[in-house]
């Protein structure tokens, strides 16, 4: 019987445990350093309301991650996801409904970028009138040369949602049809609690407060366990045969603030600022336990008075009437590594190949070279199928 050990109890590790069970493994251990599953996606709670300082929505019913969790008992409510953008334009910032920026350009044709490696490779495919403001926006967010950023960072920056329109038509490019998505019915804490119970029901052993070193995990592979590393991949470079400094990561400095608010607008609402002006890069307005909360992401710290003024200005085009910001209930500074560097992706690819060869495919990385969660989970599933597929075939014959 296959034994599977999963390091990291965030959403990726939880989905890996479900997948291992589906593929026939029955001795599955899921380990995490925290006191409960959920990883860094676990929100803090204030008077019952979840303080969410990151993404918290899922795809609709046909989304693979949604399906995998729902099949294990996690309840979702399908909703309209309302999205607005503040786009740069020659006449000043322009607000519109839609998922990505609307940029004026003489031509709306985007050149075909053959196998882009860097973020700059993607931007060069756009007309100059669109490429320049997009480059300014990316540098405002990341603060590094864009030739250092891997092309897979584009979705995390919203560059897969860019809309080009002739200058005379940008005012009419106000698309208001929301896309469908889903929210966990009992919130993110409820989602992880339900997932924990589902894992226990299928016999997964959950070990909390567990710190596992890369060398310990590699030793488990030597004892015929399959190891799935769903935690931070950087410590794994200690296992590389050719010793070298760890690759440079691109850390996006994020200052998060959450306010209680009174607002009349379609919810949940996300507003993204592509102008590279001010400090606020994104706003997410949602409800939790009957309270309306505004989660604000900034590229740097900002004083309370300036922050409130910028939030009100960015949300005003999407609200039915002027909103009121009440108390700030959370302030959080963190560094987010959602945009991998070219060096990190190349080194991770080499390390993954080395570990796969050394351990006959039984040491599996969670695909951190992709900034897109769906692509990351799909890649992880493919790796696990290769490693555990023989077990599934044997059980099917039996």
Notable characteristics:
30% helix; five-stranded parallel β-sheet; disordered C terminus; single chain; 9 helices; Rossmann fold; Alpha-Beta Plaits; alpha/beta; eight-stranded mixed β-sheet; 398 residues; 3 domains
Summarize this, please?
By secondary structure, the chain is α/β, with parallel strands linked by helices. It is built from nine helices and 17 strands.
Low-pLDDT parts are 391-398
Count of discrete structural domains: 3
CATH-defined topology of the largest domain: Rossmann fold
Q: Radius of gyration, rounded?
A: 22 Å
Instruction: Report the order of strands and helices.
Output: EHEEEHEEEHHEEHEHEEEEEHEHEH
What do these coordinates show?
Strands 5, 6, 9, 12, 13, 14, 15 and 16 form an 8-stranded mixed beta sheet that branches. The chain has helices at residues 11-22, 64-71, 119-123, 128-142, 187-201, 214-222, 304-315, 342-358, 373-397; strands spanning 3-7, 27-31, 44-46, 49-51, 76-87, 94-97, 102-104, 163-165, 179-184, 205-207, 225-229, 252-262, 269-273, 280-288, 291-298, 324-336, 363-365. With 398 residues, it is of the alpha/beta class. α1 packs parallel to α5 and α1 (11-22) runs parallel beside α9. The chain folds into 3 domains: 3-75 and 186-241 and 341-397, NAD(P)-binding Rossmann-like Domain (Rossmann fold); 99-172, no CATH class; 252-336, Alpha-Beta Plaits. β5 and β6 (94-97) form a beta hairpin.
């Amino acid at each position: 019987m296959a034994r599977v050990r999963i390091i990291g109890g965030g959403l990726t590790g939880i989905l890996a445990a479900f997948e291992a069970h589906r593929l026939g493994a029955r001795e599955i251990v899921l380990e995490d350093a925290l006191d409960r599953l959920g990883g860094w996606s676990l929100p803090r709670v204030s008077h019952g309301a979840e303080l969410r300082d990151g993404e918290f929505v899922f795809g609709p019913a046909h989304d693979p991650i949604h399906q995998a969790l729902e099949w294990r008992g996690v309840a979702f409510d399908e909703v309209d996801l309302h999205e607005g953008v503040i786009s740069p334009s020659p006449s000043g910032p322009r607000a519109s409904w839609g998922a990505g920026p609307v940029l004026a350009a003489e031509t709306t044709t985007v050149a075909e970028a053959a196998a882009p490696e860097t973020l700059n490779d993607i931007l060069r495919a756009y007309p100059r009138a669109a490429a320049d403001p997009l480059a300014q926006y990316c540098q405002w967010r990341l603060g590094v040369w864009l030739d250092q950023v891997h092309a897979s960072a584009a979705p995390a920056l919203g560059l897969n949602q860019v809309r080009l329109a002739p200058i005379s038509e940008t005012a009419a490019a106000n698309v208001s049809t929301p896309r469908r998505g889903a929210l966990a019915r009992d919130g993110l804490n409820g989602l992880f609690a339900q997932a924990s119970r589902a894992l226990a029901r299928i016999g997964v052993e959950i070990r909390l407060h567990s710190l596992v070193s890369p060398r310990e995990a590699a030793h488990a592979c030597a004892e015929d366990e399959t190891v799935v590393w769903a935690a931070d991949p950087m410590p794994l470079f200690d296992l590389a045969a050719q010793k070298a400094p760890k690759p440079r990561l691109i850390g996006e400095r994020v200052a998060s603030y959450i306010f209680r608010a009174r607002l009349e607008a379609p919810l949940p609402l996300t507003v993204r600022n592509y102008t590279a002006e001010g400090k606020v890069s994104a706003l997410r307005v949602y409800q939790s336990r009957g309270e309306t909360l505004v989660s604000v992401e900034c590229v740097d710290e900002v004083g309370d008075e300036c922050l409130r003024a910028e939030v009100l200005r960015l949300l005003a085009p999407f609200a039915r009437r002027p909103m009121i910001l009440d108390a700030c209930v959370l302030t959080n500074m963190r560094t987010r590594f959602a945009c991998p560097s070219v060096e990190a992706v190349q080194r991770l690819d080499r390390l993954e190949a080395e570990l796969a060869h050394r351990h006959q495919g039984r040491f599996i990385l969670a695909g951190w070279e992709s900034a897109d969660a769906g692509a990351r989970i799909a890649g992880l599933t493919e790796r696990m199928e290769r490693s555990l597929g023989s077990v599934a075939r044997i059980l099917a014959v039996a």
